[in-house]
Amino acid sequence: MSQFVQLDGFRATSAGPRVSGHRGARGVLPENTMESFAFCQTIGVASIEFDVVMTKDRVPVVVHNHTLDGSLARGGDGHWLPDPGPWVSELTLAEVMACDIGAANRGTDYGRRFDDQATLPTAKVPTLAEVLAFTAAPEQSGLHLFIEMKTDPNAADMAQERHDMAAAVIKEVRAAGVAHRVAMHSFDWAILDECRAQAPDLPTSYLSYLPKPMSDTPQTADRTVMPDLTQLEVSLPQAVADAGGQMWCPFFLDVTQDLVTEAHELGLLVNAWTVNGVREINRMIDIGVDGIVSDFPGRVQHCLLRRSLD
User: Fold this and answer.
1) Of 43, 120, 172, 231, which is the most buried if we count CB atoms within 10 A?
2) Has residue 108 been placed in a domain?
3) What CATH number does residue 45 fall under?
4) How far lies 203's CA from each of 127, 166, 167, 180, 199, in Å?
């Protein structure tokens, strides 16, 4: 694992876990916006985690769901889009860019979850190239990137979809000159195989989520391409190591002390998502994860600061 220079930016330090802004800092500013990414840089987080999907004209854009939803997007006429909205893969870049994502729709469950989120006068969906150009600036030289690739579940040829998406993302990363700060990140473990084939110098980060029969923690209903992890015959850390990954990124409710210990013994880094409550933030610190991905990165910073002052 030592050949991956990127990993130092995702590894815990003597001060504790690294802090990562989820979709920028979704609890504070509209998600996956340039303003949200700039906020993360301003407060000194170690990394940002964001999502990439492909438009109809095959441009990588930074959007979480495969659909552009009325919970957070308005059309050019100023009205909220349907929820769920149109598939990004069926929209051109120009059509995506015509939408306004500067406010959460308070009339939706999403908007009520993030009712303290600020409203931006105007905010557009950024392209991957725009986000990478921002992070390539000298003042962002310490900011690392989890680039989450979300393959289209409706793709007619999934192997081709994975190849093309990996190629498009890697091309943008190379062009921006930020490969030394990037982790290729996905729930679709098969696209990470493709990334390794095309760019063996980039570390791979494996997202995981185990289904919860009863959960009061809202998760997206978006159709995420991912393996059936309930069928594994080994532990999740072992499965990631067997697949050739360098990082395991589990949902925080799936993380235990024993699994973190096992992952570290296997040479893996552990970054837990999406950890928003103070109690769970402190639990992640206590069990020694390498990084905490949060909608409220300031909360994680505050928990770490309190410990340093005790």
Assistant:
1) 172
2) no
3) 3.20.20.190
4) 22, 13, 15, 10, 9
Q: What is the pTM of this model?
A: 0.95
The pLDDT tens digits for 210-239 are: 987 755 544 444 679 999 999 999 999 999
264's tokens:
């570290």
Classify residue 16 by its DSSP letter. Answer: B
pLDDT tens digits, residue range 30-41?
999 999 999 999
Q: How many angstroms separate the CA atoms of 111 and 103, rounded? A: 9
Structure tokens at 47: 């990394």
Strand, helix or coil for residue 272: strand
Burial class (CB in 10 A: 0-12, 13-18, 19+), 269: buried
Domain presence at residue 80: no
- 290 occurs within a structural domain: yes
Structural domains counted in the chain? 1
User: Residue 20 sits in which domain range?
Assistant: 5-67+126-309
Separation CA 4–CA 105 (nearest Å): 41
